[in-house]
Amino acid sequence: MSVYSTDQLRLEKIHIAQTGHELLAVDTTIYPGEVLTVMGPSGSGKSTLLAYIAGFLDPVFSASGGVWLGERDLLSLPAEERGIGLLFQDPLLFPHLSVGGNLRFGLPRRIRDKRQQVTSALEQVGLAGFEERDPATLSGGQKARVALMRLLLSKPRAVLLDEPFSKLDTALRQETRALVFSQLREAGLPALLVTHDHADADAAGGRVIELG
């Protein structure tokens, strides 16, 4: 997959609080192709940080600080215009669409040869010929690969990872981590991973910020 991002994701003096109690403070820059890991126990504000960056912060939290992607001030844009790709614990594939339909959903409208893009994406992750498969028939690892390729086909400019490996068994977790991080590096995307698993941080291979 070709490089399509040269943007830095800048988190400038971000402070997030709940009912006056500060949960976290972050001030850092994530460079193209880098995965920054934020670690901490449940309730430390990890997922809240992702929500603030992506544009869907729950109003029970208060937040301040800047979020810049390249020269774009993300906080001035609605969530759907921020160019942020998201990977969650659950693959969140659409059950009413085939595997190919899920991938086509991720493609920008301007892409003309959608069929070829989908075929190529599936070949890249060892799922050649899976276009017509029902997502319900896939294993956990296969669903994770489809979710990753749907994300990359949507051409994000940065990626947020919210414990995306936590529901996979140990062997699958290692394999999926290696695939996800290699694809993000190849695409040159700045990525922010939140997790409580040190093995995730080790596999990401980048800087680690520990909360709490």
Automatic annotation (TrEMBL):
What GO molecular function annotation could you give as one example from this UniProt entry?
ATP binding
Q: SUPFAM superfamilies recorded for this chain?
A: P-loop containing nucleoside triphosphate hydrolases
Q: Which InterPro entries match?
A: AAA+_ATPase, ABC_SmlMolc_Importer, ABC_transporter-like_ATP-bd, P-loop_NTPase
ABC transporter domain ranges (all copies): 3-211
The keyword Glycoprotein belongs to this UniProt entry's keyword annotation: no
Keyword ATP-binding on entry: yes
- Record-linked SMART domains: AAA (SM00382)
Which residues constitute the signal peptide according to the record? none
Q: Which UniProt keywords apply?
A: ATP-binding, Nucleotide-binding, Transport
Write the protein's name: ABC transporter domain-containing protein
